[in-house]
Amino acid sequence: MTPFVARLKRFAAVDSTQAVVAGWLAAGVGEVAVAVADSQTHGRGRLGRRWEAPPGSSLLVSCGFRPSWMAARHAWRLGATVALAMLDAAEEMAGLGTGTLGLKWPNDLATEGPDGSLRKLGGILGEVTLEAISPTSTGPAGGVPGGGSPPGHAPAPAGGPQVASAVIGTGVNVVWPRASFPADLAPSMTSLLELAGGRPVDRDALLDAFLDHLEPRYEALRSGWFDQGAWWTRQLLTNRQVTVAVGGTIVEGEASGVDPETGALLVETAATAAADAAADAAATAAGLFAPGSGRPRLVAIDSGEVTSCRPR
Hints:
By secondary structure, this protein is of the alpha+beta class. It has 2 domains: about 230 residues, Bira Bifunctional Protein, Domain 2 (BirA Bifunctional Protein, domain 2, 2-Layer Sandwich); about 70 residues, no CATH class. Helices cover about 25% and strands about 30% of the residues. It is built from 6 helices and 12 strands. Strands 1-2-3-7-6-5-4 form a 7-stranded mixed sheet, with helices on both faces. A 5-stranded antiparallel sheet has the order 11-10-9-8-12. A hairpin with a 2-residue loop joins strand 8 and strand 9. Helix 2 packs antiparallel against helix 4. The longest helix is centred in the last third of the chain and has 20 residues. The chain is globular.
């Protein structure tokens, strides 16, 4: 264990690694706190979904952070940073070429199959606790008299909510053979075992590689730098026709990338007057940001569910 990791514990089985790490943070354990499990009885995914995997088949890990220097509007970058570190580690340990793996907005680790469809390798779950501060606060934000920040820290947010703590979990299918994939999910999922041509990947070695890649990325984030380039190029939806559900609103169009400031998915809607009017209505009803007034219409979606995407 390196100084970067304050606590690391491996479990044969737990209710949820997210719950374990959240409990540690509540008890005062410092960052970075890491819990790893062979299996979970109540693993969680996005939108309250269950996360299930055969015991020993996946890397199930949650990391606890205390980024009191981070503004709430950038909290999504914690999950993005964990995702990028895991992609780097997975490609390295499975012997895959750089760019083989990518991100399916908003939280999937995936790859492109031979038929052009996206196949899920894993996912990210972020749970953040916010703490409001005043513009002159010198408390939890780590501010110093006269302004500025402690050495090696990004400037504390000048007012508004900030991140008090965060638990970022990731589950990656590692040695899960295709023959035992759930029948209803098999066409849309994969594992490192499959991508590596049947060569097993050691889960402990993958964890070590992940933490090795996470440390410099997190320290860069602490200093105020986020790897926007990698976040942009790893996006697998870019240039695909997508359908996105945002509450009761459906947005359809071509994904054109992601906003590195907000993490939003950028979608160009059809270049018709009717589509323009529909985009205006959808943006207003769902609280979406639709910049510009020309066509095609660019809609920025902060939170939603991609229900379909068509190959390039």
